[in-house]
Each structure stands twice: as structure tokens, then as C-alpha cells.
Amino acid sequence: MQQRKNALMADATPGMSSGTPQMQTEIDGSVFAGFKRVLRTGTLVFALILTILFALIYYQHQRSEESVRSVEHTRKVIAYIDSLRTYLLNLDNAVRKYAESQNPNYLDPSLICRQSPCPSAEQLIALIGADGARAARLAPLPSLQSALETGFGALQQRAAGGVSASPEQGFAGFDESAIDQIHRILIETGRETLPTLLKKAGYRTGVVGKWHLGLGSGNVDWNGDIRPGPLEIGFDESFIIPATGDRVPCVYVDGHRVAGLDSKDPIRVSYQAPIGSEPTGATNPELLKMHPSHGHDMAIVNGVSRIGYMTGGKSALWVDEDMGDVLARRAVRFIDTHKSTPFFLYFSTHDIHVPRLPHTRFSRFSSMGPRGGAIAQLDWCVGELLKTLDRLRLTGNTLVVFSSDNGPVVDDGYKDEAVGKLGAHRPAGSLRGGKYSNFEAGTRVPLIVNWPGRAKSGVSDALISQVDFLRSLAALSGRKPNAGAAPDSVDLLPVLLGESARGREELVEQASALSLRQGKWKMIEPGKGQRINKNVNIETGIDPQPQLYDVIVDRGETTDLAVAMPDKVREMRAILDQIRAGKRPPR
User: Fold this and answer.
1) Cα–Cα distance between 278 and 559 in angstroms, integer?
2) Dist. CA 58–CA 92, nearest whole Å
3) Topology of domain 77-267+312-454+505-580, per CATH?
4) Contact by Cβ (8 Å): 164, 443
5) Beta-carbon neighbour count of residue 485 at 10 Å?
6) What are the sequence ranges of the domains in the chain?
7) Which residues, other chains included, contact 508 with Cβ-Cβ below 8 Å and sequence gap of 6+?
8) Helix 20-84 vs helix 142-150: angle between axes, to the nearest 10 degrees?
9) How many CB atoms lie within 10 A of CB 510?
10) pLDDT tens digits for the chain (587 residues)?
11) Cβ proximity of 517 and 110 under 8 Å
12) CA dihedral 305, 309, 310, 316 (to 10 degrees)
């Protein structure tokens, strides 16, 4: 017992007996060998863990860099848009007067452009977006961002429809009494237009998209030939929405005929009273998938109630969610068909206009609901045309123009979550007002003119209007307008090319009243009506007294200088009276 105890003590205490060293060596070898095995295994496991951690860190770092680049890219684009003082996105060629005593908001641009000094462009595309679709912080716009980042911009551009001739004469033949109608064309046949001029210059001309410039010469028979229309004012080909997406008839018109119409199911349309026993938004709201916020409670098509009543034409009715695809395909087809010849395509998108029902694949692009999806869909449509030009190797020989018909509006008649999901997006930026307004947010709109590698890039403060496209593009094509044609248009091709900073001296704008721009000054005529359009929550700019603003220093029109500068007001009112009387055009 004692000996065993000593032995055990010897195991624990070196040098206690002659047998201890050998036993210690054996024990030590066993311990170190085990430790080495554990060490080797642990090292491998540790190395594996480190490798995984480094891989995860690298992956996260890459994602973070991509996110940062994406955020910086978006901020850069937004900075471009803010500095350009416009609302991004869409020249609808809609000249319409909204209900409740609203006068027409004529087209009116605020520029970004890129174009070539060469007057031999063989392709021209006008990409038109609807209702002041300014670039949205929460809706990615890769196609438009690319154009913005490489484009030339003029900040003071105005819309083409802003009446700068006398109301009696109307701009380019527009008849104001017909603006609330779709049963009579607003442009006089026989008057020279941009498509007629380019057609004479050898271009194949086409229009695809939203029209709303009237059709026919009285009561339109939607079951027969529909004329006069686009084909009678200069277009060779036409595939259009007769008015807007919120108005009947909800069909496409291909040339002179309703597309896909079954003769056994004729179309009947009325803007005065219901037709037959068809349900309406007012009487059958349970049938709606999108409800109106004001108005828009008549005929129901595709689960959405519209302005006006219609029956029949079931086989020809459009599906709102497919509209972007239908119009983009038709525009691409036009380009493909005429790729070997000079062409002019007017592509008037509908995406941003109400009802906003983009295809479901675009809803994931934005947190702003249907409106954000519609903005993303607009960008996709533009991208489809640009990709087509790339595919056909036409990009370097094609002038592309993107613009809008008016400033932004959020709630324009439907409960589409646009107001609730607006978030940090400010559609009008620092400008005052919006669609329907006399203030700048109603009349400054975007314009991107893109001709890669052929124009000087940059930004300009030159004042320009869409009415100036006719004479500017006439100069580009080498064709002079007929005598007396385009009395309000000014050749500002050097401005569009980035070769000159000198634009218009004067421009007449129209919303609910006439305004005159003269250099940095803007004078709004006295008017009668509500100061706020309560339906859309937008300041109208209506005041019983004249208003005067320095829109260069005071971009937001916050300080009315009319009382302080009565002589300037009198001077500008006298000029506007001369223009209204047809004694001279604006310069």
C-alpha cells in the first residue's frame, strides 16, 4: 500500500525513484502527441472558420460597395434632376381642359438635351411621357438616368401647347372649344405640322400612344372609318389611344379603325348620359378593383370606372396592365420596319397618367405603389426603344427626344395610394404648384434630347418651348416651313445642340390664366377662381390681381413683386395684350 502510494506520488513528483524518468517520458510523449493532434485539428477547424468568415466579410463588403455605388448613382441622378429644375418624365401631346372650370394645360418644357450639330439625322424619335413624371427617388430609372448623365440641358424649357398665339387663332390650329371633346380633331387638316414637314423631307412618320387631340369632325362612328385623325395631319402610320386611359372608348385605333373590333358587337359612346344597362362606378362600386377619388365614376372597363359611358366592343377593349407592353411593341415594330429609311416616330406613353395600373412585374421596383410602378414602367418602355436602336446599330444616327406635357399631380382622380406612399419624393422639387397650375411646377417640364457623341453635353438656362421644335427640326432636316406656318415657333437648334446659351426672350404660358415670361420675369394675369384645386390639392396660381416673379432668383415664386414694380407689370401686360390680339408673336 505504501509502495503504491509512493509510486503514484512519483508519477506526480519527478525524481522520487529510479523508475520515474521512463514513466515520465512515456506520459509526456502521450500528452504532447494528443495535444499536437488536437492542435492540428483545431488549426484546421480554425482556418476553415476564418476562411468562411473572410468570405462572408468579402461578400458583404462587395454588396455594401454595390449598395453605396447604387445609392451614389441615384443621388447623382437626383442631383441632375434637381439642378435641371424639371419634373422628370413625359410630351403627351394632350391638350386638355380638366373639369371644374380648368383651362387646357398646354405642353411646356424645361430642358435637358443631347443632339448633334449635323442636320442630316435619318431617325427622329419623340419619347413622350405623361403628367410630369419627374424622376422618382424611390423608382429606379436606368434608361432615363443614362440619358440624363450624358445629356445637355436647358433649364427654362416650356411646353409646346402653351398658347402663344391669340386664343381665336390658337396654337398650330388648336380649337379651344373642342378641348373637352374627343369627337373633333383639334388640329386643322391642311396646316403644316412637324410630321407633314418631315414627311416632305423624306421621313416615314408614325405615332404610337396617347392622342387626346380629337378625332373626326363631329360625332365619331367608332365602328367605321375614323377620320380625320393623325393620318390626315402628317403621319403615315398611327396606333393610338383615342383620348386618355381614364376616358372612353377604351380601345386602340389602328390607322382609321378600332383594332380587334367585332362588327357584331358595335361600340356606342356618350359623354352625356349612360347607355343601356351597363354598370357604372357610381352605381356598382363593388365591381371596381381601383376606386375613384373624384369623378371617374362612369363606365367600368377592366375593373376601373372612367370618364364617359360606352357599351359594346368587348373584343377590342384594352387591358390597362398590358398597355405599356402593347405600345412599346408597336413602337419597336415601327423602328424595325423602317430601319433602312429615315423615320420620325412620335411615341406618346401613357404610363404615368391615371389610371395608374402598371404591369405587376414593375410593382417591386418602388415603394410608392402603382404610381412608382408606373414610373418604372415608363423607364422600361423608353429602354425598349433605346435597346432596339442599339440592336439595329441606329443609335449614332438617331435623335431621341424625351419630354412631358405638364407638371406633376399625385391624386388625379383615383385611390391608387399615390398620396399615402409618396414618402420623401417631392415631384415638383422646389417649384410651386403642379399640373393645372399657373405656377412654375405646372409649366416647367423635362426635356432630354439624346444623340450620343454628336452634341455638346452640359446644362443651359436658355428659355425654350416645345413649339420651337418645328422650326428647329426643320433646320436640322434642311427643310423650310411653308410661308405662314408655325408663327410661334423659333429656330433654336443652336440651343438644343449646346452651341448657344441664348434662347427665347419671351414666351406665353397658359393654365387657368395666361402668363408671360420675359427673361427672368414672369407675369401672371389676373384671374377668377379658386386658389387651390381641392381635388388634386394643387395651388392654381389664380389671383384677382396680377402677379410678378423673378423666377431665376425666386425659383419657388414665393415673393410677388407686382406691387413693388408696377411699371414692369404694365409693360408686360401690354406685350401680352399685343400677342393676344395677334399683332405680334412672342419673340
Assistant:
1) 52
2) 48
3) Alkaline Phosphatase, subunit A (3.40.720)
4) no
5) 17
6) 77-267+312-454+505-580
7) 162, 163, 164, 514, 515, 516, 517, 576, 579, 586
8) 70
9) 25
10) 333 233 223 333 333 334 444 444 444 445 445 545 655 666 666 666 667 766 666 666 555 554 445 445 544 444 444 433 333 333 333 333 333 434 434 333 333 233 323 233 567 776 544 333 333 335 556 766 665 554 444 445 565 543 222 222 223 333 444 444 567 899 999 999 999 999 999 999 999 999 999 999 888 999 999 999 999 999 999 999 999 999 999 999 999 999 999 999 999 999 989 998 899 999 999 999 999 999 999 999 999 999 999 999 999 999 999 999 999 999 999 999 999 999 999 999 999 999 999 999 998 777 899 999 999 999 999 999 999 999 999 998 988 888 888 899 999 999 999 999 998 889 999 999 999 999 999 988 887 888 888 777 878 788 889 899 999 999 999 999 999 899 899 999 888 888 888 999 999 998 889 999 999 999 999 999 999 999 999 999 999 999 999 999 999 999 999 999 999 999 999 999 999 988 888 87
11) no
12) -40
Q: Which amino acid is at 140?
A: P
Query: Which contacts of 474-483 are long-range, i.e. CB under 8 A and separated by 24 or more positions?
Result: 474/197, 475/119, 476/119, 476/121, 476/399, 477/119, 477/121, 477/197, 477/198, 477/201, 477/203, 478/119, 478/120, 478/201, 479/197, 479/198, 479/200, 479/201, 481/192, 481/197, 482/192
Q: Which amino acid is at 103?
A: N
The tally of CA atoms less than 13 A away on the side-chain side of residue 565 is 16
